[in-house]
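Query form — protein DUF72 domain-containing protein

QUESTION: What is the three-dimensional structure of this chain?
INPUT:
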Amino acid sequence: MRLHVGCAMWTHAPWQRRFLPHPLPPDERLRAYATWCNAVEGNTTFYATPARTAVESWARQTSPDFRFVVKLPKAITHERRLNGADDEVRAFLDAVEPLGPRVHALWIQLPGSFGPADLGGLARFLHRLPRSHARAVEVRHRAFFEDARSERLLEQVLTSAGAEWVPFDTTTLFRSRPTSDAERDAWTKKPRVPRRSRALTGRPIVRYLGRDDTSGTVEGWRDWAGTVAGWLREGRSPTVFVHTPDNAEALPLARRFHDDVRALVPEVEPLPEPEPAEPPTLF
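ANSWER: The structure tokens for DUF72 domain-containing protein are given below.
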């Protein structure tokens, strides 16, 4: 039984020399990250379709059971709003093909303006995607969280296409006033929507945003630890991504979440031991 956990990126300046070796060439950074976590959010693909050669390097640096949840480019989701983007989708799928089974899901993050009136377009888009790829949808329009009919209609669209609803849980961040510059910045940019914890498929994906204070982050994920443990007992295969506003401690926090779930479900396989940030010395 495996639980996949990860962060929003695989390289981050505050991690250097603390958690990951530095300097590392670009074609070694993901490999070092993968000794800490067994999944990563593919956020970089939101800004542009990656070069196939770059994706081939990602595949070389990870094992086949490592998970990428790759975000579709904003040209598809935000600019075209899922309409008339067949060429862009084909180019993206061709680019990520070298990852093979590592592509755990195609992540369709929709803008906050994408609401109930757009569900027909989402349904058509999901059914045009190849069935060989799992798909996961993140919505931010408040109607999907506050209006029961809109929520039900979205679930029907997702279920009919075998797609998962990805919650981005920011409730811990917004529970109290920000106390750092990074938290203040997150308050202006992150969606403020209710927590949602219902899985639609056997492959649920959670994005959890805590605080820059470690204790606040850990306290805020207690319910998620229990939910994820329940999914594992049901035979589901969850993936959880841990964020904080500055992400300085995100790597060890992701592993700590894994430990918390494993304490509830001891059958979960442990994560590998991380690669040391500094080479061992003789004395």
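ADDITIONAL NOTE: The chain has eleven helices and nine strands.
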